Amino acid sequence: MKRGLLILIEGLDRTGKTTQTTLLFEKLKPNAKLIKFPDRTTCIGQLIDKYLTENDFELPDQSVHLLFSANRWELSQELQRYLLAGKHVVMDRYVYSGIAYSSAKETSGMDLEWCLRPDKGLIKPDLLFFLLNEDPSDTSSRRGFGNERYETLQFQDKVKDQFFNVFRALENYPKPNDRLRVLNVANCSIEKVAQEIWSIVQEKLAKEPPSEFTFF
Ligand code: DGP
Ligand code: NA
Ligand code: NA
Fold first, then answer.
1. 76-84 vs 61-74: helix axis angle to the nearest 10?
2. Strand, coil or helix: what is 216?
3. Global pTM?
4. 138 pLDDT exceeds 60?
5. Which residues contact ligand 1 via a Cβ below 6 A?
6. What local confidence, expressed as pLDDT, does residue 142 receive?
7. How many Å apart are CA 113 and CA 97, to the nearest integer?
8. Which of ligand 1's atoms lies nearest the C-alpha of 65?
9. Fewer CB near the terminus (10 Å): N or C of the chain?
């Protein structure tokens, strides 16, 4: 049986990731699953949710990073099962967010390599979309921005830089790469972005699917 594709959508907060992953999932249904990170429903996810939403709940940055990574490992077997069963998995955030957000904190010792280490061995996506809003002040004016930890303009700017550092380190950015697609969504309608994503996904689906997994 042909294995399914792992299609990941990454981006800063409030760039429309969740909307786009849902739209893509709807198009691929019923032969698809949707996985969102952090998954706040698991035991570890509940701790992560508490950390993100309660300002007075403090944990060392290293512990937080390892919790996010552990959350990805919690779902890794399920992920592999779905893909081997021929289901496509649409994913909302993953390892790239993990490294970008944690390394953006500039905590001593938590460089890109340190942050990648606990995620080593997780399945790599077959397609990776990065939704970029070139003017971060646009994003901040969207409803809801600023409710959670990390949702400040200053921090989001650092995270954006870190995303590109991660892409340089892991995806040879800016050299052409058939996994990574950077989409500038500033001033684009939801429909237009969805269409662009869908045409790239269809192109990929028309090709012979990769049989082997690649890992971080
Ligand atoms: P979301 O539910 O997509 O809004 O994500 C929650 C927040 O958690 C968002 O600001 C991004 C951040 N985040 C996601 N993964 C990681 C991670 O591995 N490490 C850290 N420090 N933050 C992460
Ligand atoms: Na968020
Ligand atoms: Na979000």
1. 30
2. coil
3. 0.95
4. no
5. 13, 37-38, 52, 64-65, 68, 93, 97-98, 101-102, 150
6. 54
7. 14
8. 19
9. N
